[in-house]
């Protein structure tokens, strides 16, 4: 819907998550009717910050989906690809990679469920949301990297989904706060618990 003073910047060409458009929203001499204001005047930053916890849960879920898809791709390939007369999934090195991938995913999934349960119960979940987002996003990056290793050269070609998982995973460690920010949020929550 056109509005005077409101325009969009150029669409960015991104490394991953390409199905989602990214562009700047440009406000130049834009007047917004008072009835369209969200919250109270001067409270915009506080309102925006309050959305982060739920947003972090969403990013954790997205990262888990990427990680699970990467594991599914790697496990399927390990069953089907043969070397020296046997599936590569019989090799201990591949089995250890798959085990570590599954462990990272399940650990992050449980943290995500815990944060979601707290949110649904209307209890504080800032620390738990940060833990879920951190664990899931780092799991997505780790698992998608390991999937490429399992697939070998085939993991690097665009015909296989592994390279897309790898590209898509990377942003999950950045938006809704970087991994470093999540660690600060978690540490702040831990320190608050020990003050009481």
From TrEMBL:
Protein name, UniProt field: short-chain acyl-CoA dehydrogenase
Acyl-CoA dehydrogenase/oxidase C-terminal domain sequence ranges: 42-190
Source organism, top-level taxon: Eukaryota
GO biological process assignments: butyrate catabolic process; fatty acid beta-oxidation using acyl-CoA dehydrogenase
GO CC terms of this entry: mitochondrion
Keywords (A to Z) from UniProt: FAD, Flavoprotein, Oxidoreductase
Key word Oxidoreductase present: yes
Record-linked InterPro entries: Acyl-CoA_DH_CS (IPR006089), Acyl-CoA_Oxase/DH_mid-dom_sf (IPR046373), AcylCo_DH-like_C (IPR036250), AcylCo_DH/oxidase_C (IPR009075), AcylCoA_DH/oxidase_NM_dom_sf (IPR009100)
Organism field: Anabarilius grahami
GO MF term list: short-chain fatty acyl-CoA dehydrogenase activity
